[in-house]
Design goal:
The chain is mainly alpha-helical and 111 residues long. It contains four helices and two strands; from the N terminus they run ααααββ. A two-stranded antiparallel sheet has the order 1-2. It is globular, with a radius of gyration of 22 Å. The relative contact order is 0.10.
């Protein structure tokens, strides 16, 4: 409990600087404190608790970024409607369909 009280605000700030979404940042913080409680339950207390907390926080943020990256790579980055709203048009072999990407087509401003 002492480590939680002592390090919570610093740890929260450390996470918030790196995780822009407030809900994700709070989830990471909660995961870190959960792991601390689990470590004490298993009789594996860390000698340098503060350093351990920050290391766990860093690892949880890396896990979060990897999950987010995997999700975002599987989703389309934009749609034809997005391009229309932005005033872009595709010159080449079809916009947003994966054909001809990098083979002579290009995105240009337009309307």
């Amino acid at each position: 409990a002492e480590a939680l009280e002592r390090d919570e605000s610093r740890l929260r700030g450390f996470i918030r600087k790196r995780v822009l979404d407030t809900a994700d940042a709070e989830d990471v913080l909660q995961d870190v404190f959960y792991e601390l409680i689990q470590a004490y339950r298993l009789m594996k207390p860390a000698e340098q608790t503060t350093a351990w907390l920050f290391r766990v926080a860093r690892n949880r943020m890396v896990d979060l970024f990897r999950r987010k990256k995997a999700v975002s790579l599987n989703e389309p980055a934009g749609t034809d409607e997005d391009a229309r709203v932005l005033g872009l048009r595709w010159q080449g072999r079809g916009f947003g369909h994966g054909r001809g990407c990098g083979r002579g087509g290009r995105v240009v401003g337009g309307g």
